[in-house]
Amino acid sequence: MSPRSFPRGRAIRLESIVKRWDDTVALDEVGIDVAPGSFTALLGPSGCGKSTLLRIVAGLEPASAGRVVIGEDDVTTRPADKRDLSMVFQSYALFPHLSVAENIVFGLRTRGVKRPERQARLERVAHLLGLEALLERKPAALSGGQQQRVALGRAVIAERSICLMDEPLSNLDAKLRQTMRTELRALQRELGFTMLYVTHDQVEAITMADQVVLMNAGRVEQAATPGELYERPATTFAARFIGTPPMNLIPAAALGEVGVRLERALGLAVQVGIRPEAMHPARGAATFEMAVTGAEYLGADALVQGRIGEAPVQMRVPGHAMPEVGGTVAMSVAADDFHVFDAGTGARVATPDPASLLARTGFSVATQGAEAPISNQRTP
Amino acid sequence: MRAGHDGLPVAFFVQEDAPMLSRQWIHGWLLLLPALAFIFLFTHIPAITTIWNSFQSTPRGRRPAQFVGLDNYERLIGDPVFWKVLVNNLWFALGTIPVSIALSIAMALFVNRAFAGRSLVRMAYFTPTVLPLIAVANIWLFFYTPGFGLIDQVLGAFGHGQTNLLGSPDTALGAIIVVSIWKEAGFFMIFYLAALQAIPPQLAEAARIEGAGGWTIFRRITFPLMMPTTLFVSINAVINAFRLVDHIFILTGGGPDNASSLLLYYIYETSFRYWDTAYGATLTVVMLALLGLFAIGQFFLFDRKVHYK
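Structure tokens for the assembled complex are given below, as produced in the milestone run.
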């Protein structure tokens, strides 16, 4: 399909969207900016309101308050078919009584596109998605992956500037999901539309999206690039949601004397966040002593459960370097790998110069050149 | 030894397993026996007897039934009342089936939406189904009564004179048709309601995003997906059109001048009022043949158009 036939993607701006069902507030003042032609993932646990938000953008659900702006137009009250967007449903929503070809051109037919034009576009889309051999089949005679492609075909044939997807890969097996991730991303790049993609799978969001909007309980926790979300989580929720296993959150008080000094230096009660993969067995001065209570060998690496002071923590170490259960290990953590959160609100506490702050409060942190978190190399 | 000699192993097996097999066989038939006895007693034997009777004369007094060949069928072809009630029945079917199906789809679509008092409306639509047809006929008899029935009272308020819908040959069949539709539509609605609720709402949403309006969604998505229900309902409606005559007893008695008589009502009159049992059997055979043909025809006609899940 030639790129010229596609208009560039358009921007989406959501302004203080509120959605109430009787007494429950599903969305609470949600504001999001989606750049034209970008891939934005709405990520969050189930029930966080991400699908409701998508349906509000689609026009399938009215917002209780707030504005939906697409491109330059306020579309808040426009019906779904006047918003120039397409949508892929979690269940695919293929019409079971229509053939693949009829499913794909359904929208063109309802909009009165002439038959030769429909046929030409159908051929291009079928070629793009590798559906040529399946056009006469009914959806029931297709595998899950093929049904997924038909749903994609129906979404892209109309050449809309925006495509919405609601957990489109959740019904596929793990292997196919990985292939489709790559294909979806490539398709979106090639056709240039704006993608708004709902998922509860952090891997999908992080691998595909330009921007990840992390939602929790009807609010936006953080909207950032995948890298930023991992490296500088804005809240303890974001810190625990992104990354497997989740970030260790240790109340400063559990760290003893240094913890008390840290809280005094910052002037508030804090939690210290350290990712399992940021902890390394110390070669020089140790940042913490960790009591090892358990370990799981995973092949390339191993997960070590233990305690620092009273706080339970997990550490990821190379598979060949499993410590013994019952003993203690000395660990070092680089200054940049310390995350500090307000213990009350859960918000990130800005630490402009973490190295000197930690040095002042008595942490002996590792300098640069910490070991790579996942490594198959044996050190000689 | 068993497998080694041609012919011998087979005979050997049969001998060895025969008592086992025959006992299972007896157990199987014993288990089937009660159901078989009833189905033969009440369905197959009467049906065969009916067919046999249609080739016999009616026994009267000291004159027993005799084999008369196709005499009864010749009489049937020359019987103007038979043709009259057959044509009536076709008009009755044509009048009730499409209208009651269309009405039931409309009612199902209506009560499938969320609104206050939905269950009340559903119940109201279904009530005629719960009522016995005899009771329904009595209610409608009051509506139709010339002079002070509901219809005449309403028409009278607009200065219209008396009507006698049941008593006039032009309107009697129409009046019966209306009662049947009223009785049947609510029953069919239940099936359509179940069919509608089995359609995932995402299909309509996907169609809406693709620019389909309410009518297009119904025509291209909802109605085709309800085709199995339509097939089921239409076969039932056809059977009912030939089977339900209770209201005729109350409302018109088939009159005036057989204007509202249907095939089954004529069979009843022939067999049990005039005791012409042989001719009644002949009429019954014709009706069964007709119904069988309709059912087969409907399956063939619809089969290509019905999408089963």
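The two ends of chain B are 53 Å apart (CA to CA). DSSP finds 13 helices and no strands in chain B. Further analysis is deferred to the final report.
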